[in-house]
Design a protein that fits this description.
Structural class: mainly alpha
Number of strands: 0
Subcellular location: Mitochondrion inner membrane
GO molecular function: proton transmembrane transporter activity
Number of domains: 2
Keywords: CF(0), Hydrogen ion transport, Ion transport, Membrane, Mitochondrion, Mitochondrion inner membrane, Transport
Largest sheet: none
Shape: rod-shaped
Radius of gyration: 25 Å
Strand content: under 5%
Pfam family, one: Mt_ATP-synt_D
Oligomer: single chain
Family: Belongs to the ATPase d subunit family.
Distance between the termini: 15 Å
């Protein structure tokens, strides 16, 4: 992977990949992590009646939405963090850390 980043094309494409990843990550962290607004059952009890609202509340309370468990982020986060560091390096800084690759270029 690091070898690809030394080409001009790879350097141009990597920020696009990073932005796409950040957008998806942001969406997953915000849209799918919120709790719904609580229902004001008392408000509906006053206007509709106790029995009917209580039936709906009981049905609502019985709904169990399974929560997804993230078992993979911890495996891939170090890789993405290291890629972010690489993307902010200049070519000279990169070759300083990896002198063996300068010979290949």
């Amino acid at each position: 992977m690091a070898k690809m980043l030394v080409s001009d094309e790879a350097r141009k494409e990597f920020p696009t990949l990073r932005r796409a990843f950040d957008e998806v990550n942001s969406t997953l962290q915000t849209k799918f992590s919120w709790e719904p607004e609580p229902i004001d059952w008392e408000y509906y009890r006053k206007g509709i009646g106790l029995r009917l609202v209580d039936m709906y509340k009981e049905a609502y309370d019985s709904i169990k939405v399974p929560q997804s468990v993230d078992n993979v982020t911890s495996q891939y986060k170090p890789t993405f963090d290291s890629l972010k560091k690489i993307s902010t390096m200049t070519t000279d800084e990169y070759f300083e850390k990896h002198p063996e690759l300068r010979k290949e270029v």
